[in-house]
Predict the 3D structure of the following.
Amino acid sequence: MIKYFMPILEIKLVPDPILRKRAAPLEMVTEEIKSILNDMAETMYDAPGIGLAANQVGILKRLIVMDCSKEEEDPNLIKMINPEIVYSSEEKEELEEGCLSIPDHKSIVIRPSKVTVKFLTVDCKTETLEAEGLLAACVQHEIDHLNGVLFVDHISRLKRDIILRKVKKQIRENDK
């Protein structure tokens, strides 16, 4: 028997306007916020993806979840509340990025190769994370979401227009 799992939360797709809005910082970490983060993590794993920002599930709060571990590694779920990049390296790195809100489309994005992020944990502790490589790209990508920025905003206008045109075409075809 095949089991089908549905994500707990609906992932918003471009051109949903919520993806272009800035998320609000949180004043307190409540049980509701912890529950939202758990639901976001389950949604991300189900998608499957390596990162998810609250905007992508229709919640305008500064929350992200990430897990950049490889398949052969144990999961390494990171939950961040009010993440803020406090350091970005001058050195850049090119990595291919995709997005759960722009399914089936990827492009090379150039970002700082190393970043330091300050954030609150679910236990209300301030922590910092020094990230490089895929983790650095992922955390920058997710924080961009919280600021209403998509990965396609970091690529050439021509490539962005091609991707967004294809997405609109997919939407039209799915609505038939």
Notes: The longest helix spans residues 157-174. The first strand starts at residue 51 and ends at 53.
